[in-house]
Fold this sequence. Notes:
Helix content: 40-55%
Radius of gyration: 17 Å
Strand order of the largest sheet: 1-2
Amino acid sequence: MDRATRIAEFLKKDNDAEDYACWRELIKADILKKGRNPQTNALIQFYGSSSMDAANLLAQQYSFLSHKDSVYVDTVLHTFETLCKDGLMYRYNSPDDFGQPKSSFTVCTFWMIKSLYLIGREIQAIEMFEQVLQYSNPV
């Protein structure tokens, strides 16, 4: 709805932009109420879950939350704590149609590096970046 609002504003469709913005705020409020673990203050994989999902690191990139928002900061820290193994990030660790995830997802590692940097953990982000470079190959 955020992008729909921006497009409507660009096209000077003020009534549509206002409607979309209203929906955007309702959806955001619902996610922050039902899609956040009250104990950790972090966004969760899905409503009713306590599992983490590295995709929530994109909340800042898509302008859903500011990098200074406590929910975003707590999401980054709890995601790192829960899904990082040997310097690499898993997308999630809950079983899916293929069973328990057994491998990391490299793009999630880069999402984490950026997120750590944005929340002020620059040294940790640089160290993680340097570590992931050690896994590179000539291809």
